[in-house]
Amino acid sequence: MAEKDGAAHFPIEPPIEPMLAKLATELPEGEGWLFEPKWDGFRAIVFRDRDRFYIQSRDLKPLDRYFPELEAFFRASFPERCVVDGEIVIVGPRGLDFEALQMRLHPAASRVKKLAAETPASFVAFDLLAEGERDLRPLPQAERRLRLEQALAGATGRVHLTPCRRERSVAQEWFHRFEGAGLDGVIAKHESTTYQPGKRAMVKVKHARTADCAVAGFRWHKQGPGTLVGSLLLGLYDDAGTLHHVGVTSSFSMEARRRLVQELEPLRRDALASHPWRHWAEMGDGTQRVPGAQSRWSAGKDLSWEPLRVERVCEVKYDHLQGDRFRHAAVFLRWRPDKRPADCRYDQLEVTPPAELAQVFRPAGT
Asked: Which residues does the annotation mark as catalytic?
């Protein structure tokens, strides 16, 4: 990547393993903790050597070509020689838009250019790994944070500095208030911690939310088609009464998968006759979320499914919404025989983006 033998080079040569976080159920207590919001985007380490820039992903791959609009802001905001750790995000009307971010990973440069203009990305900085000729990774977190604030004092445009506070009470408030804006939770870093590439030296506390969902179908388990249920297909109704596919739950033991085959068998009879998704293969107009619809993210996957009469409701735990779907597979909690499928609506998930998010992304100079 970099030129050797005395030629120009980055302060630290990429790639760098990013420092990671271990999952916890509660924010740490005690002295010396620094708290930050957990951003839901693409982890990115930005390397600058004057007019040369390189953006590295969490898995050590280049990201430059997918976010060409960011270089001008890095040039205006960063020291001439530095390495900055942070997150690339896209902010939409309802908060962070991870789905729009994923769409940027497109092989066609023309498509990337078009999306860069329509849904421009931003960069949220949260650590300074090098400045000038000095590698700052051996310094404690508190000192690196201070140097980051000084280095980005003149940040402009789409480069932002993540909030950082010492008060645990503030972090607890963030945990709830930032939820509606699509943030993942809170990160805790001890002030004495050095930057440790590849090590889980930070603490993350993520949201765990629950929702009541209509069960509208299932997929067979790859190890037992016809004998083991792999996942249940979950649906939520919008205000117009349309049932959208919002994700799956697949957190079952092998014994539970066997039992589900018998338990769901009565709901399979005549299920397709009046199923709300019976015409999904003919749609393609984007007005309804349905299972089995192909996308660039589903290439090579078996998306076949078995319809069920929409008569049962289950409660699931999910960690995050990606657009109007669960980003990851939801965790099955229990059946809800007391709930009607028609009552499983999106409005149970609605929360208002907090003012704090708008403050972080306010236009420069305001």
From this structure: 38
